[in-house]
Design a protein that fits this description.
Strand content of chain B: 25-35%
Number of domains of chain B: 1
Structural class of chain A: alpha/beta
Strand order of the largest sheet of chain B: 9-8-7-10-6-1-4-5-11
Strand order of the largest sheet of chain A: 9-8-7-10-6-1-4-5-11
Distance between the termini of chain B: 60 Å
Number of strands of chain B: 13
Number of helices of chain B: 7
CATH topology of chain B: Rossmann fold
CATH superfamily of chain B: HUPs
Order of helices and strands of chain B: EEEHEHEHEHEEEEHEHEEH
Shape of chain A: elongated
Largest sheet of chain A: 9 strands, mixed
Bound molecules: flavin-adenine dinucleotide, adenosine monophosphate
Oligomer: heterodimer
Radius of gyration of chain B: 22 Å
Helix content of chain B: 25-40%
CATH architecture of chain B: 3-Layer(aba) Sandwich
Distance between the termini of chain A: 52 Å
Radius of gyration of chain A: 21 Å
CATH class of chain B: Alpha Beta
């Protein structure tokens, strides 16, 4: 069976959940080979987890290069040459898409981007925030496929995980990384991975009052999101923006508080299984897609809801 | 410093966007078209750098470059009316339906027609395709460094430094010019074109390139030669409205009851 290369996403040796989703998805196409690019000692931290999730091989490309994303691209390009894989799987993220695009253009491979499902016949995309479903296929060998996080249920499965060192060559001119400050996640679940998301909009009115949104989120074990108007007004940080220019979320439950439901916001959340909306304005478009809507003031409705849920839990 | 700004005309996101059921390609006639908001920011960033006069050379020029159908001239005019000096429009029917790989290769060729380019500035992600990678891909083809998702750009002499901001955090990047930079939403607030700017834009030079002018082989571009093909596209039935109640002091409890009935809590 052909190899399927999986680029392992990690933060200094700490695995990202999406990497295990990729290993699960890879098994539908062939034998997963994990590709670890990082500083010396990274693979040792990741190897056990990768084996438990089905990696038959682990390519180890350890380097102290400060070149920005170029080591990932050149390692994958050389593995495409040497292993002629059935496909290369990479997670959708700012870095993942950039690596995938560069790899595709460098190796003349098809790039299937933002895929939500894949099989031997092709891939599925969810377009315009879920307004369309499209099926697509690659017309080249070794396509590069970027998979949206949260699309695949992780299934552990033991793999041999034989390690093999890969040389990192320096390819062409590259930007140099002079410093990094990763965002360290708080206690709440990751927005794109959460099964419940509670979002606030301009109607929340201030950064302080976002406490009401967070309060409900925490009783539900939910992630917090925000509309662009709330982000632009400085109520909540940008990385929590949901919508066309923010994150796409598709949780079991999405609760929109003080959000009008502009088309660009809906593009990021309308595939949620169940949608609840609270808005003062009975005509707000968010009600057109809400499974349950309350016309009312979020500052009275939300605390009551938070209390009721807390009561049920205790 | 010679700056090329990559701009793209996109369907206005305030109108409904459609996929053509026959080939799965964006139906560009179904909606109004505008200069992508992120590209206004890219133009603004170029104008700010030009006005500051940093970077190599005594004189600076900002060239906007787009690959798109005839009507993309509207997007070009918008960028010129903001203050860009001239434009290149790569327009050829054969380009229709090109995918990201083909687009990046074609843009790289078109950039090659502009002499002495020091810096290419693009948006980080187009609002229609959302590939979020074309600038880095163009850089890869040209063998240039890519400094992407910039929140701040500084040019000193022949060195460019970018503060890159994504969901993952902040990374400081630097490279020697020439280089490709893509800008994020928070880079700046684009200026409005003035009346004078709008009038002046009508007289600014726009070079229209065919495939042959740019040295692009027709077999490398277009839907028929794309590396990926959409095999089917269908609209999902829109979600319909459920129950809506007016709060009479029990709105929160009613939501809780609904969540219980749906086994969500
Ligand atoms: C290119 C482009 C990209 C965009 N991308 C995004 C994106 O990614 N995400 C996004 O969200 N938007 C995006 N937008 C912006 C979008 O068009 C809307 O402006 C934005 O979503 C509005 O946010 P909002 O609903 O919080 O604010 P508003 O539209 O101002 O709505 C606030 C709502 O709160 C209600 N309200 C006020 N007070 C209360 C109260 N006390 N209790 C209950 N309800 C109350 C009001 O009735 C109103 O409906 C984009 C726009 C453009 C042009
Ligand atoms: N057809 C095009 N013509 C000019 N620039 C483009 C084109 N496609 C993409 N770009 C540039 O690349 C950026 C990112 O686009 P994308 O990678 O497609 O999300 C855009 O904001 C533009 O600056």
């Amino acid at each position: 069976m052909a190899e399927v290369l999986v680029l392992v996403d990690h933060l200094e040796g700490e695995i990202k959940k999406s990497s295990y989703e990729l290993l699960t998805a890879a098994r539908t196409l062939g034998e997963p080979s994990a590709v670890v690019v990082g500083s010396a000692g990274t693979a040792a931290k990741l190897a056990d987890g990768l084996r438990e999730h089905g990696a038959e091989k682990i390519y180890v490309a350890e380097t102290d290069s400060d070149e920005f994303l170029s080591p990932e691209v050149s390692v994958l390009a050389s593995l495409i040459e040497s292993a002629s894989p059935a496909a290369v799987l990479i997670g959708v993220s700012a870095d993942g898409k950039e690596i995938a695009g560069r790899l595709a253009v460098r190796t003349g491979s098809a790039w299937l981007n933002d895929v939500v499902a894949l099989s031997g016949d092709g891939v599925t995309h969810s377009v315009f925030g879920g307004a369309y479903v499209a099926e697509a296929k690659a017309n080249t060998e070794h396509p590069v496929i970027t998979l949206r996080p949260g699309s695949v249920e992780i299934e552990p499965s033991p793999g041999a995980g034989a390690e093999q060192a890969v040389e990192v060559t320096s390819g062409g001119r590259s930007a140099a990384v002079t410093s990094r400050e990763p965002i360290v996640g708080g206690d709440r679940p990751e927005l794109t991975e959460a099964s419940v998301v509670v979002s606030g909009g301009r109607g929340v009115g201030s950064a302080d009052d976002f406490g009401v949104v967070e309060g409900l989120a925490d009783t539900l074990g939910a992630a917090v999101g925000a509309s662009r108007a709330a982000v632009d007004s400085g109520y909540y940080p940008h990385q929590f923006q949901v919508g066309q220019t923010g994150k796409t979320v598709s949780p079991q439950l999405y609760i929109a508080l003080g959000i009008s439901g502009a088309i660009q916001h809906r593009a990021g959340m309308q595939t949620s299984k169940t949608i609840i909306a609270v808005n003062k304005d009975a005509e707000a478009p968010i009600f057109e897609i809400a499974d349950f809507g309350v016309v009312g003031d979020l500052f009275t409705v939300t605390p009551q809801l938070t209390d009721e849920i807390a009561k049920r839990k205790s | 410093m010679n700056i090329v700004v990559l701009v793209k005309q996109v369907p206005d996101t305030y109108s409904e966007r459609k996929l053509n059921p026959s080939d799965g390609v964006l139906d560009r006639d179904a909606t109004d078209a505008v200069l992508d908001e992120i590209n206004e920011r890219a133009v603004e960033a170029a104008l700010v750098l030009k006005e500051a006069g940093d970077g190599p050379g005594d004189e600076s020029a900002v060239t906007v470059l787009t690959m798109g159908p005839d009507r993309a001239t509207d997007a070009i005019r918008k960028a010129l009316s903001m203050g860009a000096d001239k434009a290149v429009h790569l327009s050829d029917e054969a380009l229709g339906g090109s995918d990201a790989v083909q687009t990046a290769r074609a843009l790289a060729k078109a950039i090659g027609t502009v002499e002495g380019v020091d810096l290419v500035i693009a948006g980080n992600e187009a609002s229609d395709g959302r590939a979020g990678a074309v600038p880095a891909m163009v850089a890869d083809v040209l063998g240039l460094p890519a400094l992407t998702h910039a929140r701040e750009i500084t040019v000193e002499g022949s060195q460019v430094t970018v503060k890159r901001e994504t969901d993952e955090g902040i990374t400081m990047l630097s490279a020697a010019l020439p280089a490709v930079v893509s800008v994020g939403e928070k880079i700046n607030e684009p200026r409005y074109p003035s009346f004078k700017g709008i009038m002046a834009a009508k007289k600014k030079p726009v070079a229209t390139l065919s495939l042959a002018d740019a040295g692009i082989d027709a077999s490398d571009v277009g839907l028929a030669n794309a590396l990926t093909s959409v095999t089917s596209a269908s609209p999902k039935p829109p979600k319909s409205a459920g129950e809506k109640v007016t709060d009479e002091g029990d709105g929160g409890s009613k939501i809780a009851a609904f969540l219980v009935s749906q086994k969500l809590i």
